[in-house]
Amino acid sequence: MRLLREPRLRTRDGRYYIVFYNAHQSPAQKWVTLGTHIESQAMDAYSSLRREYLFGTYDPWTEHRREQALTVSEVAARFLRRPELRPNSKRSYRGVLDCFIQSLPAGILLDAVGAEHINKFIEQRNLAKSSRASYYRQLRAFFNWATEAGYLRTTPFSRMKAPRVGRLNPPFLSKEDLGRLLRAAEADAQIKCAVSMPAGNRWFTDAVLFAVATGFRLGEIVHLRWMDVSLEHGTVSVTNRGDFESKSGHDRTIPLVASAREVIMRLDAQRAPDKSDAADSVFRSATGGRLSAGYLSERFRFYRRLAKLDDRLHFHSLRHTTASWLAMAGVPIQIIAEILGHRSLKVTEGYAHLSPDSLYREMLRAFGDANLEIDGDAGVRNGAD
Question: Is the pTM of this model over 0.85?
Answer without folding.
Answer: no
